[in-house]
Each structure stands twice: as structure tokens, then as C-alpha cells.
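Q: Okay, next protein. This is Nuclear transport factor 2 family protein from Polyangium fumosum. I've checked the sequence twice, so it should be correct. Can you predict the 3D structure?
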Amino acid sequence: MKQDSRSGSRASWGRMGAAMCAGAIAATALGAAKPAEGGHPGGGLPQGGVPAALQRLVDEAEIEKLTYCYAEATDTIGRGDLEGGRSRYLQCFTQNAVVAAYYPGDDPNGPPSLISGPSAWADVAKNEFDTAGYTSTQHLNGNVVINVQGNTGTMKTYLQATHVLEANSSVEVAHGWYDDIVVRTPHGWKIAKRTLHLQTFLRVESP
């Protein structure tokens, strides 16, 4: 997604983002310390001892599903179903998750554009798609790398996204990657912070 305007100073974005992210991760990590009633801190796993190697495989599989959950939610919005996409985002993210974005031309060492909460991000996506005039979108993810450390972890995912302007005529294609901070909650793994890094955003038209 492209974003042509940003409100507020970039320095303010950075300070606010650091505070929101730290609070979001701390809150969800504390919540993960105690399992839901009758459940397990990993979400959906049986009580009792689980071999460490097996637990890691289970964790990584559940975390990887989050990036596909996000893509499905975004493309649901891309097809015009805002509420369907919003509902799906709520399954991918913690309630107080932060979404950050660096667009082509942004200083990668500077503060990103920030949105707080999956519901607000759904509105941003819908506005971006409507403003650009997209009729549908397709987000493809790959090269997923996951690192789990107890109840927190990181995930990096390559991105290729196609935004359809006119079927069989013109599209806009984005390339980049996502950097995620994930946390274990009583309801399973969730994304606490997702940072989008867009390297290119190109318009392609048929001859």
C-alpha cells in the first residue's frame, strides 16, 4: 500500500511508536504467563509436559500462520469486504498491536508511519485501496524466518503484493518484507508489532 501523506513530525511518530510497542509487548507477555482457564499458555495445546523440540515446531507452525492470516485479511479488504478483513485482522494481532510502515524513499533509520490497533489498520487499508482505485489485491508471502524465545519471538517474511486497477490492463506491484514481534497469549500466538518495509512500488500496464 502507498501512503502519500503523513501527519505530525517524524520524530513524534518515532517516540510514540516506541512507547506503544513496549507497552503492547509487555502487556501481552504478562498475559501469557498464566494460561486461560482449562487451557495452556500456547493456546490450544494439551496440559502436561511437551518435549522442547516438539513445542518449538508447534510454536513455529502457529506463528507462520499469522503472516498468512494477515495476507488473507488484507485481500479480503482489497475485495471490498472491510468488516470481514477487520474480523480476520483481530485473529492475527493482539488488541493493542502496532503496525509500522516504511515506504519507498523513506529513511530506513528514521521513524516509521504508525497505526495503533488492528481495527484502525483495517480502516487505513480500506482508505488506501479506495483512494487508489483498486478492484482487488493479492498478497503473497514467502521466505518466512522465525525465532522463538520462550513466550516471545520474531518473524521475517518476504512480500510481493499485486494491486489490480483494471483487470487485464494495469496493476501496481509492491515488493518488500515484514518484520514482526510475536507473543504467546492464552489464545495462541499473536502479532504484537508488524513493521512493513516496502522496497519498490511499480505500476505495470499491458501493451
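A: Here is a summary of the prediction. The domain at 10-205 is CATH 3.10.450.50 (Nuclear Transport Factor 2; Chain: A,). The chain has one domain: 10-205.
Q: Noted. On to the next one.
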